[in-house]
Design goal:
Helix content: over 70%
Number of helices: 8
CATH class: Mainly Alpha
Radius of gyration: 19 Å
CATH architecture: Orthogonal Bundle
Number of domains: 1
Structural class: mainly alpha
Length: 161
């Protein structure tokens, strides 16, 4: 195999990793802010993490505990706790204990939280459509299957480290 191709793949993966935590987040924040149509919420959006956005979207199905949210969005309980603290601060979610279970805290969306979650979901739907459109226009189904297999193999390899 051509070592230049392998080097190119490795460099591209490193670029994706280096941008994962910061640039992508600010891009999502700016997109959501631009599509909200509410200046007050737009200012709040810039202070939220990606985990906070995904927490809001997870809560669209109803009240959930931090553990349930963490499992649903595949993050740590601590990550959800930090996000929930910020979301509570900006009144995007509410927290309550149920009379029959005083130990667990259940989080629910407020009206503002529903608005932000909806726009966040719209953004992901647009990204998914654009990704599908661009990739299927450029690559054959067989090409995409090779890429999918490659990414799965890479994921499995990284899980071994």
């Amino acid at each position: 195999m051509n070592t230049d191709v392998i080097t190119n793949i490795r460099q591209t993966i490193e670029l994706l990793r280096s941008q994962q935590g910061n640039i992508h987040g600010s891009q999502e924040q700016r997109w959501i802010q631009a599509h909200l149509g509410d200046e007050r919420l737009g200012a709040v959006v810039l202070k939220l993490s990606i985990v906070a956005f995904h927490t809001l979207s997870a809560l669209e199905t109803g009240a959930q505990t931090g553990i349930e949210i963490a499992e649903k969005i595949n993050v740590t309980r601590g990550g959800v706790t930090r996000a929930a603290k910020k979301l509570l601060q900006y009144n995007l979610i509410s927290a309550e204990k149920r009379p029959n279970d005083k130990k667990k805290i259940y989080y629910s969306l407020t009206a503002d939280g529903q608005t932000v979650a909806h726009v966040h979901d719209q953004m992901h739907a647009m990204i998914k459509k654009e990704l599908i459109d661009k990739l299927t226009a450029k690559y054959s189904a067989a090409d995409l299957q090779v890429v999918a297999s490659f990414l799965n193999d890479l994921y499995q390899l990284e899980q071994g480290f």
